[in-house]
Each structure stands twice: as structure tokens, then as C-alpha cells.
Amino acid sequence: MVDIPLRVSAAPAFSNRKENPYQWLLYRQLQSLGVEIDEFRLAHLLEGRHDVFHIHWVEQYAISKRNLRTALFRAASLLTAVDVGRRRGTRVVWTVHNLLPHERFHPQLQRWVLGAFARRVDATIHMSETARAAALAAYPILRCAPAVVIPHGHYRDVYPHEASAAEARARLAVSPSARVLLYFGQIRQYKNVPELLRAFSGLADQDVVLLVAGEPRTAELGPAIETLAANDARVRTSLRWIDDDQVQYYLKAASLVVLPYKEVLNSGAAHLALSFDRPVLVPDQGSLPDLQQQVGPEWVHLYRGPLTADHLQAGLDWALAPRVAKARPPLIEWTEAAADTLRLYQEVLGRRRLNRKPGC
Q1: Topology of domain 7-153+334-350, per CATH?
Q2: pTM
Q3: 8 A C-beta contact, residue 35 and residue 47
């Protein structure tokens, strides 16, 4: 008898590697376990030839367009295709990266579509216990299906990693003695970068440098940040996409990585910083307290309320103070995450279709 491999249609699989290597790292490992991975197309659901449809951001495929008609059409197309696929035997797995889209063009429609999608899910993946609890509270129907925690893996093998801190600072023309705060990553409204610059302006220390590196996702954010940066000579901006071979210079130059989210459930940027053995200052929200518990308070420092200069000062003092810490933060290996994901696929494929009861 021929052993037919498990076949997964992943949304996305490998197409977003440059923007976010999370999926590439996961599915590369699943391929090594014998799983066949295809980049998602609606036709996969209509054909019914895939065992699992694994989606990460529902909004990306359904409700991310500003034009309401386009959003409605895409939402209807996805939900209809999922219904067809499920009737043909495809199981639906949703990794819940966030509870609502970060860009909320049509809030009521987005909430309705996510609720409707949740009713069609056979299992969900969450990156922490806090994230799982939040998702089940937001979409109670998810309690009717397996909801497992598979933590975010590390990014240690993705980017060059050979420069020293001194070489990185020389490359960026930063003084070897400076205390360096870094914001690194895509710049979007919810990431609150202008507020970071306002808080930084309240720091009296003239030996502190703030590096802001990343590509603004909207036309308004870049000029707003540049205007704020122009008022403080200690601020350096690189408002562009940072190529993979340049990533190490920014992270290795940093004394402390600051991620001042307005709201957050999970943070790939925090995992990137920790993958470069850099301590992070983050709000006490979402999965970030779980991350602190995982890697230790020597690596993750939490603040509450709006970001202030006092928070930045306390974070810098904490990051630079002598302290006992593991040589590297203990982050999850992708081999472990992939094995847990495969076990979930096998579980949902082994289950009968759920007979939805009242409330389910």
C-alpha cells in the first residue's frame, strides 16, 4: 500500500517569507516530517484534494481591502469556499495571531466575518495560554473544537549573525559608549512609534540614542515620524525596508529594544529581538507576560499604561544593570512547533465532524 502524505493548503505558506519568515520556518519543518505543503488558492477548497486548510490571518484573504464591495466579495468567496471544502473533507485550522485586524477598514464587517469563520473551524492554534483564553472569550464557538498552544519559534537561523556589537555600531555611526534604544520592524498605527518618539523626547540623558528602523505601512506615518525626529538630534531613522543582511547591525547595536504597542496579542518583533539576545521593553498586554515567564524577567521587561520617559529610563537602567541571565533566551525550536502542529492535524483528521449543539 502506498503511504500518501498529508497534504496542507497553507495561507500563507512561503509567499510572505521576506515580510515574516514565521510561516516559512514552520512549513519547512513540516515538509521535513513528510507533509506536503501548497500555497493556498481558493481552488484548493473547491477541489477538496487537501486534508487541511491552515490559515493564519483571515483578514488577509477576506476583509483587508478599503473598498467595501471588494471586501464583501472576498469575504463571501472565502466563506463559501470553506463550506465547500469542509463538505469535501478538508479540515480547517486557524492560527489566531490577533483577535481583530490591525487595520480596521470595515469594523462591523470584519467582526462578522471573523465570527462566521470561527464557526467553520475544526481547530485553533494559539501562541500562549493568555492568547488562547482571549480568543475563546472573543469567539466562544471556538470552545467546541481543539484549541492548542504552540508557542512562537525563534528567528536565529534566518538572518546573518556574525557582526559584533562594536562592528554594528561602527556600521551605523553610533558611538561605542552610547546607550541605544531601538524600535525595529514594520511601522503601523497600532505599533505606536510616534508615541515612542514623544516619550523619548522627555529623556534628559544626552548620551542616549534612539534608532527607528522599518518601513511605514501608510503614507501618513513616515512624515509624522520624520517631523518628530527632526526635533531631537539623538534620534536616527531608517524608514525603509531593512534587507536581511542589514538586520543584524540594528539589533546588535541596541542596548534595549522597545516595542510600544497600543494593543498586542502576539509579537514576532519581540521574538526577533530575543533571537539576537537583546532585552526587550514591552507593554503588559496579550502574550507578552507569557513570553516573560517563558524566557525570564532578565530578558523581558513589562510596563503598564501609556509609554513615558520614565518607562524608557527604567528600561534602560534594567537592561544595562549587571544581572544574572542565561547566555541566550530559551526560545522554542521550530522542530518542536512543527511536531506539535502535525499532531494537531492528525487529531482533527481522526475526529468525526463536530455535530454542532446549541452554543456550538
Answers
A1: Rossmann fold (3.40.50)
A2: 0.93
A3: no
